[in-house]
Amino acid sequence: MTPLLLGAVLLGNLGVCVTAQVLVMLTPPAQVRFDSMDYKNILHWTPPTNNTSLRYYVQWKIYGEPQWVDVDGCQGIKKQECDLSDVTSDLREWYYARVHASSLPSSKSAWALSPRFSPRWDTQISPPALRLNVTEQKVVVRVKGPHPLVRKMHSKLHYKIFLIHTSGEEEVFKMDCCSNKLTLKELGHKAKYCLQAQTVITSQAKSSVRSSLKCVTML
Question: What region holds the Interferon/interleukin receptor domain (predicted)?
Answer without folding.
Answer: 123-217
